[in-house]
Design brief:
PH-domain like; 314 residues; FYVE_RhoGEF_PH; 16% strand; alpha+beta; Dbl Homology Domain, Chain A; seven-stranded antiparallel sheet; 55% helix
């Protein structure tokens, strides 16, 4: 008898889960535990750093080792009598939201490993020592740490495949489809966590370029557009190079610094976006010119091209 396709996929899910739990055991019970033990002696690296590297790996390990894997095992042993996994995954899928925190922290964790390996030779030696063990299969700590980041997309692929192969009248169809939808939402949740992390990182870089002015630094700001612009001076009919940062709530009118120590720009003027008016000017002498008028003042600006002007106005 040929095994039904959906059972093969369910078995693959179980086998990969078993391997995955071993990997989590290595991360939590070997790397994390041993690095933490060393950190407590005060010779390698601060305890806080070890905690930051491993984020919430202990909760993830516990969840998979004590709930997810045993439930799947039980179900597969009972497959001939009750051929379904959709309900189990549905019940446990909400817990996978824990991954958002781990995924969001991943880049930071890798940076910390690199930085502290340079700073603390004993820390580097301990990691190298663990990596030499058979259980590590010649792979680095960073490589093992990537596994949880890739696990949820893997569930999504396996479940998609499972749903596709289910016979139309299968008792598991409804549950499996619902489970797939839930896994999809969890994947979206961790992708959103990554996107938010990138947004904050980019925002921070912008604040550094602006010299970190207290009243400008706000995590809720959204950078919409930035770029060089010419300021037209009607008094002496000339233009000078300026730089604009447009946020959702303010326009920063800046001057590029000649000597760049620290900040790249000096903020000359802040204009509230609320109540601001923007319109194109038909100026024969200065093409691609537009007027920005706000509560604080009015600026006559010139873009490098018609497209660029339209983009700013928009």
């Amino acid at each position: 008898m040929q095994e039904p396709e959906e059972k093969k996929i369910a078995l693959e899910l179980l086998e990969t889960e078993q391997t995955y739990v071993n990997r989590l055991h290595l991360l939590d019970q070997v790397f994390y535990k041993e690095l933490m033990k060393e950190a407590k002696t005060g010779k390698t690296v601060p305890e806080e750093v070890v905690k930051m590297i491993f984020s919430n790996i202990s909760s993830i390990y516990q969840f998979h080792a004590e709930f997810f894997l045993p439930e799947l095992q039980k179900r597969m042993e009972d497959w001939n009598r009750n051929p379904r996994i959709g309900d189990v995954i549905q019940k446990l899928a909400p817990f996978l939201k824990m991954y958002g925190e781990y995924v969001k922290n991943f880049d930071k964790a890798v940076e910390l490993i690199t930085a502290w390996s340079e700073k603390s030779p004993p820390f580097q030696e301990l990691i190298a020592d663990i990596q030499k063990r058979k259980v590590c299969a010649n792979l680095t700590l960073q490589h093992h740490m990537l596994e949880p980041v890739q696990r949820i997309p893997r569930y999504e692929l396996l479940l998609k495949d499972y749903v596709r192969k289910l016979p139309p009248q299968s008792p598991d169809r409804g549950d499996a489809e619902k489970a797939l939808e839930m896994i999809f939402m969890v994947a979206k949740h961790s992708n959103a966590a990554i996107a938010e992390m990138e947004r904050l990182q980019n925002l921070w870089v912008v604040y550094q370029r602006l010299g970190l002015e207290d009243d400008i630094v706000d995590p809720s700001n959204e950078l919409i557009k930035e770029g060089p612009i010419q300021k037209i001076s009607t008094r002496n009919n000339s233009t000078s190079e300026k730089y604009l940062f447009l946020f959702n709530n303010m326009l920063l009118y800046c001057v590029p610094k000649v000597i760049q120590v620290g900040a790249e720009f000096q903020v000359h003027l802040r204009m509230d976006v609320e109540g601001m008016k923007v319109r194109e000017l038909k100026d024969t002498e200065f093409p691609h010119t537009f007027l920005v008028s706000g509560k604080q003042r009015t600026l006559e600006l010139q873009a490098r091209s018609g497209e660029e002007m339209d983009a700013w106005i928009k």
